[in-house]
């Protein structure tokens, strides 16, 4: 009985971890939700997928109804980056349709492209690529014009052109819809790495592009490895493509928008520690016209996307736990959970059948292993018993962990107060 209570308490801990400061989940079980967009009909959530061509776009309405607008989108697991890559963001198109930004992948027809749906009709079920009116191969243009990679991440339509933030080319690509021509609108060169860790230069990776109220554009950015805290900027681009730093001192910004008070709001995806991206470390930052940064909300995520609806209600995605979150200002916050330094090593990764876990502990402690699928569903819990100080080794098979399908899984080691986690892909 005690062991059952022990595991239950750890399960409750992880459930509490899903709720950030003032946030509650309104949609759960999503495989890597990314972009979040407000529309007159509800909130669109772009789901990247589990790596099994299961990307989709969902619509959440105020009455709690969830509809699948588009399904069967290309999604694959990139073993070089340990990330799932697929559709990133859906935005309204011409009042009746959708512009879908598709990331890079092995699907040569739809990889690194913009998918345009002129109308949305799900009366016969979710739409698919077959319903698209146009496919714009942004990646093919980028690769043919000297860029080594292409990964469109967001787009905005303005005055007859589409402006695409390419997070692998580190550039803004412009597509003139009248002429049917592409051009390089702006580029973001790397900067010297001020740390002894990582490559000699650090990439500036554009993430979200939006129209600036004063004209031109704002572009958020994250930095490449070693993910330096405070090194990200929000850039201003004028209508000619000239780039200048509008605001700096930010960290790993994946989304920006205009808040209800008309200030620019930036979403910091997460903080990057010695053990990877920290749970509950995302932040929403308000940036005023003088460049002053004010933390609005913290203690959730990692989170790739957020939006305000017409009433000023706030929504955000939770990448690790597969949720669309809604903000409730009446909630006081979440359980205070910190990251443990357990020296966790999981190998091999990617894994086929058996997997080994190595822990290096300063002191003996009671630990549990919890395994979640990419939609945030707890599929396995293992009591690691009382560990010893020093090296601790464990080995499990797929069947022992109840892993039945190929895909990405979230391994969490916890002592009930803190945790350390890793993402593991099973072939």
List keywords for this structure.
427 residues, Neuraminidase, Immunoglobulin-like, 2 domains, five-stranded mixed β-sheet, globular
What is the CATH superfamily label of the largest domain?
Answer: TolB, C-terminal domain
CATH class of the largest domain: Mainly Beta
What's the architecture of the largest domain in CATH terms?
A: 6 Propeller
Low-confidence stretches: 1-19, 332-336
Could you give the count of β-strands? Answer: 38
- The overall pLDDT average reads 87
Counting structural domains, the number is: 2
Alpha-beta content class: mainly beta
Specify the number of helices: 2
Radius of gyration: 21 Å
Q: Tell me the helix content.
A: under 10%
How would you sum up the major sheet?
5 strands, mixed
The amount of beta strand, in percent, is: over 45%
CATH topology of the largest domain: Neuraminidase
Task: Kindly describe this structure.
The chain is 5% helix and 50% strand. The protein is mostly beta strands. The strands form eleven sheets. Strands 31-38-37-34-35 form a five-stranded mixed β-sheet, with helices on one face. A four-stranded antiparallel β-sheet has the order 1-30-29-28, with no helix packed on it. It is globular and about 65 Å long. The model is unreliable at 1-19 and 332-336 (pLDDT under 50).
Summary, kept brief:
By secondary structure, the protein is mainly β. It folds into 2 domains: 22-327, TolB, C-terminal domain (Neuraminidase, 6 Propeller); 338-426, Immunoglobulin-like.
């Amino acid at each position: 009985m005690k062991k059952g209570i022990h595991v239950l308490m750890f399960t409750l801990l992880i459930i509490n971890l899903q709720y950030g400061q003032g946030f509650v989940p309104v949609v759960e079980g999503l495989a890597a939700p990314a972009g979040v967009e407000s529309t007159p009909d509800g909130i669109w959530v772009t789901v990247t997928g589990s790596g099994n061509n299961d990307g989709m776009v969902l619509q959440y309405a105020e009455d709690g109804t969830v509809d699948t607008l588009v399904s069967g989108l290309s999604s694959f697991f990139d073993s070089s980056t340990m990330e799932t890559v697929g559709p990133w963001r859906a935005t309204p198109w011409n009042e009746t349709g959708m512009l879908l930004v598709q990331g890079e992948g092995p699907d040569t027809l739809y990889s690194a492209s913009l998918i345009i749906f002129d109308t949305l009709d799900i009366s016969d079920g979710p739409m698919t690529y077959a319903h698209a009116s146009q496919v714009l191969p942004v990646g093919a243009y980028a690769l043919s014009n000297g860029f080594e990679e292409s990964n469109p991440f967001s787009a905005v339509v303005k005055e007859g052109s589409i402006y695409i933030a390419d997070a692998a080319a580190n550039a803004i690509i412009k597509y003139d819809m009248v002429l049917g021509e592409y051009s390089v609108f702006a580029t973001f060169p790397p900067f010297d790495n001020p740390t002894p860790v990582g490559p000699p230069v650090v990439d500036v990776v554009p993430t979200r592009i939006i129209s600036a109220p004063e004209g031109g554009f704002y572009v958020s950015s994250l930095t490449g490895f070693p993910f330096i805290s405070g090194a990200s900027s929000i850039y201003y681009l004028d209508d000619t493509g000239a780039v200048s730093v509008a605001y700096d001192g930010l960290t790993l910004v994946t989304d920006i928008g205009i808040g209800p008070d008309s200030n620019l709001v930036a979403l910091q995806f997460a903080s990057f520690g010695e053990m990877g991206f920290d749970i509950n470390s995302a932040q929403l930052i308000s940036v005023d016209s003088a460049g002053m940064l004010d933390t609005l909300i913290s203690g959730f995520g990692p989170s790739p996307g957020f939006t305000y609806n017409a009433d000023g209600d706030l929504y955000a995605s939770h990448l690790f736990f597969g949720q669309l979150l809604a903000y409730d200002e009446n909630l006081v916050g979440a359980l205070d959970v910190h990251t443990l330094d357990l020296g966790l090593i999981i190998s091999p990764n990617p894994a086929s059948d058996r997997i080994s876990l190595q822990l290096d502990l300063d002191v003996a402690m009671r630990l549990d292993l919890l395994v979640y699928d990419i939609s945030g569903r707890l599929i396995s819990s293992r009591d690691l018993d009382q560990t010893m100080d020093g090296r601790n080794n464990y080995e499990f098979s797929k069947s022992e962990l109840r892993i039945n399908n190929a895909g990405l899984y979230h391994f969490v080691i916890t002592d009930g107060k803190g945790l350390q986690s890793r993402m593991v892909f099973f072939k």
